[in-house]
Design brief:
The protein is of the alpha+beta class. The chain is about 45% helix and about 25% strand. The chain has one domain: K homology (KH) domain (GMP Synthetase, Chain A, domain 3, 2-Layer Sandwich), CATH 3.30.300. It is globular, with a radius of gyration of 12 Å.
Length: about 80
């Protein structure tokens, strides 16, 4: 799961070296905290949060296949 979010985020930003992800697992719930450079925050969130919603939708679909719940926080 972590690798998928990292791949998507690095393809969106102009500074891919600043992308990092923290993963926290609590039972069947996984929380992924995506850290990007401040100047890339708008690129990851998108207009009205559309890109962030799309990232979360992709992660939800991938998590459903593994019977877990994934929460993506963009920090």
């Amino acid at each position: 799961m972590k690798e998928l979010v990292e791949l998507i985020a690095k393809s969106l930003v102009s500074n891919p070296d600043a992308v990092s992800i923290e993963e926290e697992v609590n039972g069947t719930t996984t929380t992924l905290r995506l850290h990007v450079a401040p100047e890339d925050m708008g690129k990851v969130i998108g207009k009205q949060g559309r890109i962030a919603k799309a990232i979360r939708s992709v992660m939800k679909a991938a998590a459903t296949r593994k019977n877990i719940k994934v929460i993506v926080d963009i920090i």
